Amino acid sequence: MKRKNDHGFPDRNAIVAFIKANPGKVGTREIAREFGLKNADRAELRRMLRELADDGIIKKKRHKVSEPDALPPILLADITGRDSDGELIASPAEWDEVESGEPPKILIEMPRRPKPGTAAGVGDRALLRVERTDETEGPAYRGRIIKVIDKAKSRILGVFRSLPEGGGRLVPVDKKFADRELNIAKTDTQGAQDGDLVSVDIVRSRGFGLASGRVKEKLGSVKSEKAISLIAIYAHDIPLQFSSAAMRDAEAAEPANLKGREDWRDVPLVTIDPPDAKDHDDAVHAQADDDPNNKGGFIVNVAIADVSFYVRPGTALDRDALDRGNSVYFPDRVVPMLPERISNNLCSLVPGEPRGALAVRMVIGPDGRKRSHSFHRILMRSAAKLHYAQAQAAIEGRPDDTTGPLLDPILKPLYAAYACVKRARDERDPLNLDLPERKILLKSDGTVDRVVIPERLDAHKLIEEFMILANVAAAEMLEKKSLPLIYRVHDEPTLEKVHALAEFLDTLDVPFAKSGALRPTMFNRVLAQLEGHDYYPLVSEVVLRAQAQAEYSAENYGHFGLNLRRYAHFTSPIRRYADLVVHRALVRALGLGEGALPDSETPESLGEVAAHISLTERRAMKAERETVDRLIAHHLADRIGASFQGRVSGVTRAGLFVKLSETGADGLIPIRSLGTEYFNYDESRHALVGTRSGTMYQLGDVVDVRLVEAAPIAGALRFELLSSQSEGGPRERRPFRPQRKSSKARPGRSPEQKRKPEKQKSGKERNAKGKNKGRGKKGKAW
Q1: Which one has a higher pLDDT value, 92 or 247?
Q2: Residue 196 and residue 160 in contact, taking contact as beta carbons nearer than 8 Å
Q3: Which residues pair with 170 in a beta bridge?
Q4: Are 174 and 199 in contact (CB under 8 A)?
């Protein structure tokens, strides 16, 4: 019996129940048919669906409605207004409306006596603990404020441009406000000079003409490209100075000694890092296992700087480190999580110097699988500091004065152990999205010299795989000891994104099995079949966009990309707070001495820490990306009118985003400049299609463009199209034919992959039912 109101119209509960019972298949037509509604009822139905979507109870996308994506239990939200009762209403701060529709609303529950730091108002940004409501009236979520992160701002960051008659204009650094300059009177400049980065208070805003502002603070000049990173640092409120108390703690710290430690100074551990690395927080050593029961196996030792010995819970150093969450890396500088005396001195595993470390000793079987592990608090002495290309050259028969004596006793066993563990990695078959990363090289004056793509070497993969093994060992040990920890988690793609990917691949006649339980192997199989084909860059990009974003969590729902059930970050405590928490937990679990995780830490409190450092990680990634955009825009500013080749990196209703092959710079070709005909946005194809000619511009297309405009402060570029693959009419596609792979080239299937497929649930849903069945991938993106 379908529930209807007094007017014969279905009530909200009945409509919501129908939508939940038919995921991904319901639109206005299906609801009308189900409840016997006539054409005259359609307007009322659309109004009700709009209300449900506004409250976040359902999600509307194009002509379909569905349940909204579940919000995490702790998230960052913007307080956007009040309801009719005066209660605060918030929305998630990070929400993709293109992918997920309107963001859900969250009703803020305020206690009678708010804790310090939790009093909030409209326009503030806050960290919330949220839960789903069962109500079909009002917001779909309710939340409590953990901490107000940012108060509503009437202050703008920008570059001061002086005017001949005195005073000046503010050019905002945010791309979204690049065309909204502020007028600054002569009396309000506070002595700012042309090119200074300043923060400005808005003193008057008008409906017409320029708003007015007053300089509040001068932050430095951006006339030199060497200072471009300052913009991102201040725009994202990244702490630049340590507190005086933290600096005093750092200066008072003393080198570690043998007290409470095992003596590993004779173990020839070596560091292998980029050539420009300033700190060295991990060292490795391997040797063949002489145990007759493990013939062909190895002993792998991974030693990690003992930061927990110096940064104790609750100290000024700890508070500053948590506030930062992680180090931030710009082309011209590093904003470290810890003062240099700690990160670059006492905790850096430099050659020949005794250093405290937390080490894991892992026994690897001949099949490459880890058989056992043990953790040790040690005093070590690095035997050498190597960089990746140097180690690789030695193995390939080109040793130098440093690597020559190390080749047989140290490097060859390391590479032999890596070849062994690689067998297990290939069988595990993690997500194989090895996309190139560009690196900006600067001249001595801070300007861009060139952009390079560093070669991907076995030396890189060796270190990555040993670090992954150590991270897994840390998570397993802490779970065994029943201690709370912060996991590194990566959820599997949503069912909606998988269906969207399948629809896209279908337009290319590329087969993709979307039924059964999701495995990284499904995506790897598609990529392997397309290797060497025109479609490969395009499909790689779309597969990447289908993936969830990795984060930190006190709850384990696995790491999909790495195809691992449990995973934690243990190997970089100098630059990541999550690793420091894991070190403290290991010290407590194994009774290794001082610097242990306090007994007061619970999964709930660590959940709040995990949410915070997930935010600081995303803040760092955004700041780093924007700085690169600004540096390259500065670099290209004097090349207006020049032609470049690139690839379409994004397709929207506004136009095409193009990534240049030479520099990796991103810019926009506005849709209005594509021609005289009208272009439709085809979401399933990731393309713009001409209505008259059928000309199609698609994600991944190779294009020739002319640079029309560069806005260095905003990091924005505008192009016009010169030619593309699709010029001259509808695109002709080379038919797809799957490549045959030999049985040797195909990785084996793990027992986990051979299981009978189960109905797909997200990692978070599995975790809620007490099933930790996650998985995972390597690299920075995960």
Answers
A1: 247
A2: yes
A3: 160, 182
A4: no
DSSP state of 487: E
- Are 382 and 284 a contacting pair, CB within 8 Å? no
Measured distance CA(325)–CA(478) in Å, rounded: 22
What is each CA distance from 38 to 15, 16, 313, in whole angstroms?
16, 19, 65
- Residue 565: φ, ψ to 5°: -75, -40
Amino acid at 547: Q
- Do 550 and 489 meet the contact criterion of CB atoms below 8 Å apart? yes
The reported pTM is 0.78
Q: What is the pLDDT of residue 208?
A: 56
Residue 353 has pLDDT above 50, yes or no: yes
Q: Closest Cα partner for 429 from 752, 89, 694?
A: 752
Q: What is the mean pLDDT of the chain?
A: 84
Element (H, E) at 767: helix 763-768
- Regarding the domain with residue range 640-723, which homologous superfamily does it belong to in the CATH classification? Nucleic acid-binding proteins (2.40.50.140)
CATH number for the segment(s) 74-149: 2.40.50.140
**Per-residue pLDDT tens digits for 150-162:** 766 566 888 899 9
Domain residue spans in the chain? 12-66, 74-149, 155-223, 244-487+556-620, 640-723
pLDDT at 730: 40
The dihedral of CA 80, 83, 86, 87: what is its sign? negative
Tokens of 226: 């060497």
280: exposed, middle or buried (Cβ count in 10 Å: 0-12, 13-18, 19+): buried
Rounded to 5°, the CA angle 592-612-113 comes to 105
The answer to whether the beta carbons of residues 685 and 696 sit under 8 Å apart is: yes
The per-residue pLDDT for 57 is 75
Which one is predicted more confidently, 750 or 640? 640
DSSP 8-state code for residue 520? H
| 764 vs 730, higher pLDDT | 764
Write down the CATH number for the domain with range 12-66: 1.10.10
Domain at 155-223, CATH class: mainly beta
Q: Give 751's pLDDT tier (boundaries 50, 70, 90).
A: very low
Query: Alpha-carbon torsion 368, 374, 377, 381, what sign?
Result: negative
Cα dihedral sign for 220, 225, 228, 229?
negative
Confidence bin at 480 (pLDDT 50/70/90): very high
- Pick the most confident of 95-99, 462-466, 691-695: 462-466
Distance between first and last Cα of the chain? 48
Distance CA(700)–CA(720), nearest Å, equals 17
Q: How far apart are CA 379 and CA 674, in angstroms?
A: 64
CA distances from 437 to 26, 340, 455, 487 (A): 41, 27, 10, 25
Q: Which two tokens stand for residue 519?
A: 């495995």
* Residue 140, pLDDT above cutoff 90: no
CA angle 500, 506, 508 (to 5 degrees): 115
Counting Cβ atoms within 10 Å, is residue 438 exposed (0-12), middle (13-18) or buried (19+)?
middle
Confidence (pLDDT) at 489: 96
In degrees and rounded to multiples of 5, residue 465 shows phi and psi of -70, -40
What is the spatial distance between Cα 657 and Cα 367, in angstroms, rounded to a whole number?
46
Evaluate whether 155-223 and 640-723 have a shared fold.
yes
Q: What is the pLDDT of residues 600-632, one digit of tens each?
A: 999 999 999 999 999 999 999 999 999 999 899
